[in-house]
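User: Earlier you gave me the apo prediction for this protein. Now I'd like the version with magnesium ion bound, so I can compare the two side by side. Same sequence as before, with the ligand SMILES added.
Assistant: Got it. Here's the input I'm using:
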Amino acid sequence: MPLVRYRKVVILGYRTVGKTSLAHQFVESEFLEGYDPTVENTYSKIVTLGKDEFHLHLVDTAGQDEYSILPYSFIIGVHGYVLVYSVTSLHRLPVVLVGNKADLSPDREVHEVQGKKLAESWGATFMESSARENQLTQDVFIKVIHEIARVENFYEQESRCYLM
Ligand SMILES: Nc1nc2c(ncn2[C@@H]2O[C@H](COP(=O)(O)OP(=O)(O)OP(=O)(O)O)[C@@H](O)[C@H]2O)c(=O)[nH]1
Ligand SMILES: [Mg+2]
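And here is the structure of the complex with magnesium ion:
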């Protein structure tokens, strides 16, 4: 008897990047031409990989912007995330990848350079931190505020250019 394992995966990303279309294509094998903004939707599919069966529970979310609040169901019991962007738009949310517990140097398994490279490959900002250190912790959240402002300014300037 194959083991059926439950996997809860949350699909995140900005509005209209195609989260629902991807989920729908995966589960129903068809492309959705129309656009119907998602409030929240779930999809289920049994996926067989070799001898293993996975009961995949996909949570299709409403597109996020900088004002979105993620409900608990997007965090609790989640096994993985799919972060989607559209290649047709540069408009992406700022992401700060934080390598925390940097104070625990004897237990370190991830080198700072590895974190940096991963963040670079995502176009994300990277920081190491320690929740034991107030200043380092402040820096994380100040960084994300700066990043949001940077992206906002960029798009404000861009829309001004269009208006001219
Ligand atoms: N050409 C093309 N169009 C796509 C693709 N994915 C999505 N679309 C179209 O883009 C529009 C938005 O797609 P959705 O899947 O609804 O986007 P979403 O990310 O779920 O949007 P929200 O629920 O508002 O966050 C729809 O008109 C889709 O048909 C794609 O890979 N190629
Ligand atoms: Mg959607």
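For your comparison, keep in mind: The pocket of guanosine-5'-triphosphate (ligand 1) is lined by residues 13, 15-21, 32-35, 37-38, 62-63 (CB under 6 Å).
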